[in-house]
Amino acid sequence: MKAEIFPYLAIGLAKFFEKQDRRHPYPDQLRYSLNHMALAMSSKYPKTIEGLLYLLEKPLNEWWPGDLPVGFDGDMPMVEDGELSFEVLTYLEKLSEQENGYFHDSLLQLELILDNQRFKSLLDHLREKSLVDMHGAHSDYVTLRRFIIEHPFALQREISHVFSQTNYLHVTQVQDLYMKTSQIADILRFADSANAPKYWLCERCGPLRIKNSRLESIKSSLCEKNCPKNRGGWRAIHPSNQLSILRKGVHLRVFIPGVPELSLFNWLEEYQRKNQNWIENIVLWPGVDSYDIQVKFIDSVWAIDIKDHRDPYKLGSSLTGIYGEGNMHWDHGYYVYPDYREKQRLGYGDVVRQSSQIKGIHIISEEVFKQKVINKIKSLRKGGS
Question: Of 49 and 349, which is predicted with more confidence?
Answer without folding.
Answer: 349
